[in-house]
């Protein structure tokens, strides 16, 4: 577990170690099957997998680029051509959301297991069944890592979490736990998921009222509260930016007074949350059909 947090070279060596990832996954599967999701060894295994999934899209060897990422077709010379690991181009990003991964291997080995739907479902199962905060946080964090990029793999993982594995109810529960880092990681995962436009309706329906409910009435507290608040605002921004229905849902959940209060907090400690709330307010105002409702 300590070695897996030793940096890029350490992660690379461990991913390449024959049988290591397979053994970790095998152990966790056995713990879940035996209804023992709370033992310390399971926590250690999940924390290792969490660390090995960090920056996975960027650090994958080139040999995987050809087999994992489908080649783009009909991309004009004027468009920015996407590399193996995505680009910052908004146009390309939108195209990549519709680019599926090749068919999953039924029996993944080694590093292939890290983004496979089997392990995604294991993480979601641990989130639902484990009561250990570190196990919950590591499972959420691994999913956050896997959905962090802009290439096809993160969007494919996001679709698996939301639509294929029905993971939103388990993630939603984590929004209401008392442990601040578990809550923060759950919000950060939702922020990544909410970037996928094809999933935004599902996410808004399932968790938008919960996100509004955990917004603080005023930004008082620690750095982690500030970071969590900012992440909530950016998630709500993603969900409402192009969707008037979701903006109305935020309004009906009494989110506007909270967001206004947060945006007006000008202390240095909470500038990140204040800025995020201001960006969200500016975006909400773009829905001109809701102006009269906002004023009321």
From TrEMBL:
<protein>
    <submittedName>
        <fullName>PKP2 protein</fullName>
    </submittedName>
</protein>
<dbReference type="InterPro" id="IPR000225">
    <property type="entry name" value="Armadillo"/>
</dbReference>
<dbReference type="GO" id="GO:0045110">
    <property type="term" value="P:intermediate filament bundle assembly"/>
</dbReference>
<dbReference type="GO" id="GO:0005912">
    <property type="term" value="C:adherens junction"/>
</dbReference>
<dbReference type="InterPro" id="IPR016024">
    <property type="entry name" value="ARM-type_fold"/>
</dbReference>
<dbReference type="GO" id="GO:0005737">
    <property type="term" value="C:cytoplasm"/>
</dbReference>
<dbReference type="GO" id="GO:0005886">
    <property type="term" value="C:plasma membrane"/>
</dbReference>
<feature type="compositionally biased region" description="Basic and acidic residues">
    <location>
        <begin position="94"/>
        <end position="107"/>
    </location>
</feature>
<dbReference type="GO" id="GO:0014704">
    <property type="term" value="C:intercalated disc"/>
</dbReference>
<comment type="similarity">
    <text>Belongs to the beta-catenin family.</text>
</comment>
<dbReference type="GO" id="GO:0072659">
    <property type="term" value="P:protein localization to plasma membrane"/>
</dbReference>
<dbReference type="GO" id="GO:0002934">
    <property type="term" value="P:desmosome organization"/>
</dbReference>
<keyword id="KW-0677">Repeat</keyword>
<dbReference type="InterPro" id="IPR011989">
    <property type="entry name" value="ARM-like"/>
</dbReference>
<dbReference type="GO" id="GO:0005634">
    <property type="term" value="C:nucleus"/>
</dbReference>
<dbReference type="GO" id="GO:0007507">
    <property type="term" value="P:heart development"/>
</dbReference>
<dbReference type="InterPro" id="IPR028435">
    <property type="entry name" value="Plakophilin/d_Catenin"/>
</dbReference>
<feature type="region of interest" description="Disordered">
    <location>
        <begin position="79"/>
        <end position="109"/>
    </location>
</feature>
<dbReference type="GO" id="GO:0098609">
    <property type="term" value="P:cell-cell adhesion"/>
</dbReference>
<keyword id="KW-0130">Cell adhesion</keyword>
<keyword id="KW-0965">Cell junction</keyword>
């Amino acid at each position: 577990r300590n070695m897996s947090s030793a940096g890029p070279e350490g992660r690379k060596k461990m991913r390449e170690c024959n049988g290591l990832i397979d053994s970790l996954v095998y152990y966790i599967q056995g713990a879940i099957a035996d209804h023992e999701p709370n033992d310390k060894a399971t926590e250690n295994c999940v924390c290792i997998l969490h660390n090995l999934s960090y920056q996975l899209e960027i650090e994958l060897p080139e040999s995987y680029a050809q087999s994992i990422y489908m080649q783009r077709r009909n991309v004009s010379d004027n468009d920015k051509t996407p590399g193996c690991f995505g680009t910052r181009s908004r146009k390309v990003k939108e195209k990549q959301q519709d680019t599926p991964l090749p068919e999953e291997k039924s029996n993944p080995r080694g590093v292939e297991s890290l983004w496979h739907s089997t392990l995604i479902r294991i993480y979601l199962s641990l989130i639902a069944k484990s009561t250990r905060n570190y196990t919950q946080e590591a499972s959420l964090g691994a999913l956050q890592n896997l959905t962090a990029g802009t290439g096809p793999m993160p969007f494919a993982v996001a679709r698996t979490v939301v639509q294929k594995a029905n993971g939103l109810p388990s993630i939603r529960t984590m929004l209401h736990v008392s442990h601040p880092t578990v809550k923060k990681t759950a919000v950060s995962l939702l922020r990544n998921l909410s970037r996928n436009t094809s999933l935004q309706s599902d996410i808004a329906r399932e968790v938008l009222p919960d996100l509004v409910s955990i917004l603080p009435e005023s930004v008082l507290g620690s750095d982690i509260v500030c970071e969590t608040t900012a992440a909530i605002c950016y998630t709500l921004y993603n969900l409402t930016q192009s969707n008037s229905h979701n903006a109305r849902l935020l309004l009906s959940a009494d989110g506007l007074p909270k967001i206004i209060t947060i945006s007006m907090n000008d202390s240095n400690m909470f500038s990140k949350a204040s800025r995020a709330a201001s960006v969200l307010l500016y975006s909400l105002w773009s829905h001109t059909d809701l102006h009269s409702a906002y004023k009321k």
